[in-house]
Amino acid sequence: METTQISDIKIIKSPTSKIDSVDFETLTFGKQFTDHMLVCDFIDGEWHQPIIMPYAPFEMDPSSRVFHYGQAIFEGMKAYRDAQDEIWLFRPDQNYERFNKSAIRLAMPEVPEHIFMDGLKELIKIDANWIKKGNGNALYIRPFMIGTSDGVIASPSLNFKFCIILSPVKSYYSGEVKVVIADHFSRAANGGIGAAKAAGNYAAQFYPTKLANQKGFQQVIWTDDTTHTKLEESGTMNVFFRINDTLITAPVSERILDGVTRKSLLAIAERDGIKTEVRSITVNEIVDAHRNGSLKEIFGAGTAAVVSLIAGFQYKDEYFELPQVADRFATQLKEKLNAIQYNEAEDTFNWTVKL
Ligand code: COI
């Protein structure tokens, strides 16, 4: 294997590539991974040399803290290839900042910027041929960190592994998304870890989401844990509601993830004259708005899901189908966001970063 060194990153190239065995037309989200990964260990209070190496399983002690106490965080980002073959990242600074906020909340060390940013840029350069052209194609970037100290004592790990893996993707949801509004289970509570991108937040959603899936719904819209009246976020996305011509989304809080797609859509909407309101929105409000015809759209927004239209929602025993409206905000905002991400429109916000 060829070994080189770029700044302080050690690079061990894979002698072979799996790329020819991948059908880029029929990708399942997050199932195929590129040839390399970045790994960097935090041991005895310091970060060691980051290494880019062939994608492969880890060997870990079965008592590692992550397996017992869920000390694990992650991020979701994307890289895009434009028509001129340039590669772009979208607001990577936002993911970096959020990653370290999650790290602090989960009693983990912050990852230095050069390891996160230089590491991911070098890794993407090495596996750049996995990023295909064309709107809808992207490279999903998954940085994550786990507690690796051994021992089943319930105290924070002292050692950690930071890693970045890359997955070529198309859309996250195929087909329509119907949701159930939570009236019993909760995703997060005040003072908890809802605002962190912690693995446990997702594990906690799996059982209620499985129950929803069994009834034909793809996702749950979570409500506040105390009254179950305020609409907060969905499993993999923040949620937007259009009542008449106003776009409404819940404010970020200790219970809600500060989504990068969420804040980007809000900024595009505000720039382009769509009235936005960042405020609590209740189940009663959308049920009433549905009944009087003013509820026009509900859609989710996230890195993986991009902008996903919600076809209808179930609340207690009633299903509310959303109307077919012309000139949807969801479509307009998705096209404008994608145009920036794929370098097809001027990036008036200075969000994109060329690789
Ligand atoms: C993302 O949108 O990047 C997420 O993290 C959602 C994920 C659970 C697929």
UniProtKB/TrEMBL annotation:
Report the catalytic activity: L-isoleucine + 2-oxoglutarate = (S)-3-methyl-2-oxopentanoate + L-glutamate; L-valine + 2-oxoglutarate = 3-methyl-2-oxobutanoate + L-glutamate; L-leucine + 2-oxoglutarate = 4-methyl-2-oxopentanoate + L-glutamate
**What range does the record give for the signal peptide?**
none
User: What is this organism's lineage?
Assistant: Bacteria, Pseudomonadati, Bacteroidota, Flavobacteriia, Flavobacteriales
CC cofactor: pyridoxal 5'-phosphate
* Top enzyme category: transferase
Q: Which SUPFAM superfamilies match?
A: D-aminoacid aminotransferase-like PLP-dependent enzymes
Statement: the UniProt record of this protein carries the keyword Amino-acid biosynthesis:
yes
Keyword Transferase on this protein? yes
Q: Which domain of life is it from?
A: Bacteria
**What's the source species for this entry?**
Flavobacterium agricola
A single Gene Ontology MF term assigned here is: branched-chain-amino-acid transaminase activity
According to UniProt, the name of this protein is: Branched-chain-amino-acid aminotransferase
Alphabetical keyword list: Amino-acid biosynthesis, Aminotransferase, Branched-chain amino acid biosynthesis, Pyridoxal phosphate, Transferase
Family from the record: Belongs to the class-IV pyridoxal-phosphate-dependent aminotransferase family.
Return any one Pfam family short name. Answer: Aminotran_4
Q: List the Gene3D superfamilies hit by this protein, alphabetically.
A: 3.30.470.10, D-amino Acid Aminotransferase, subunit A, domain 2
Stated EC number for the protein is 2.6.1.42
